[in-house]
């Protein structure tokens, strides 16, 4: 995952500011501004004792495909066909909200990349001579076994 500040340094922005300067690099040819990604926090489920009861460490990152300005029409239609109108990734693995935020963004990046990568075309193949021979030998063996099960001719 690459979150890169393109125009300004971190000291120029506020600590929690997710301006258009920071982007999520989905692929070599696509970067999505973090401003287009909605991050929601909530309390994490599962074990964790008192710490889990008071911290909002679960992070949900969602990306609105229809509302994005960084996608081309072809990318938008491909994403909608393969992932839907909203792509969501959740992380609640870590105790830290910051680590879960990074995990959620990485998972979102992976889902977007997988949905935008066209499937590799299948190259039709033919059975090899050895596989054809094995298939025919198995057929002969099965036929012989069934022939032996038949009652004797009268």
A few lines on this structure:
The chain is of the alpha+beta class and 154 residues long. The chain has helices at 49-54, 73-83, 97-116, 129-149; strands at 3-5, 22-27, 30-33, 37-42, 58-64, 86-91.
Kindly describe this structure.
The chain has four helices and six strands. The termini are far apart. Helix 2 (73-83) crosses helix 3. It has a single domain (3-119), classed as Double Stranded RNA Binding Domain (2-Layer Sandwich). The protein is of the alpha+beta class.
Task: Give the strand content.
Answer: 15-25%
Largest sheet, spatial ordering of strands? 1-2-3
CATH fold group: Double Stranded RNA Binding Domain
Helix content: 25-40%
Q: Helix count? A: 4
Mean pLDDT, to the nearest integer, reads 84
Write the CATH architecture name.
Answer: 2-Layer Sandwich
- Number of distinct beta strands: 6
Query: What is the total domain count?
Result: 1
Biggest beta-sheet profile: 3 strands, antiparallel
List SSEs in N-to-C order: EEEEHEHEHH
* N-C termini distance: 78 Å
Alpha carbon gyration radius: 27 Å
Structural class based on helices, strands and sheet pairing: alpha+beta
């Amino acid at each position: 995952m690459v979150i890169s500040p393109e125009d300004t340094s971190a000291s120029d922005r506020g600590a929690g500011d997710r301006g258009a300067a920071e982007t999520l690099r989905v692929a070599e040819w696509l970067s999505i501004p973090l401003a287009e990604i909605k991050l929601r926090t909530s309390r994490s489920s599962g074990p964790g004792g008192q710490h889990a009861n008071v911290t909002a460490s679960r992070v949900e990152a969602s990306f609105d495909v229809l509302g994005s300005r960084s996608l081309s029409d072809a990318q938008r239609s491909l994403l909608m066909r393969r992932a839907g109108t909203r792509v969501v990734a959740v992380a609640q693995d870590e105790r830290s909200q910051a680590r879960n935020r990074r995990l959620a963004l990485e998972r979102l990046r992976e889902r977007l990349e997988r949905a935008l990568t066209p499937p590799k075309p299948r190259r039709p193949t033919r059975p090899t001579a050895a596989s054809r021979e094995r298939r025919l030998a198995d057929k002969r063996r099965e036929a012989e076994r069934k022939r032996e099960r038949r009652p004797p001719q009268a």
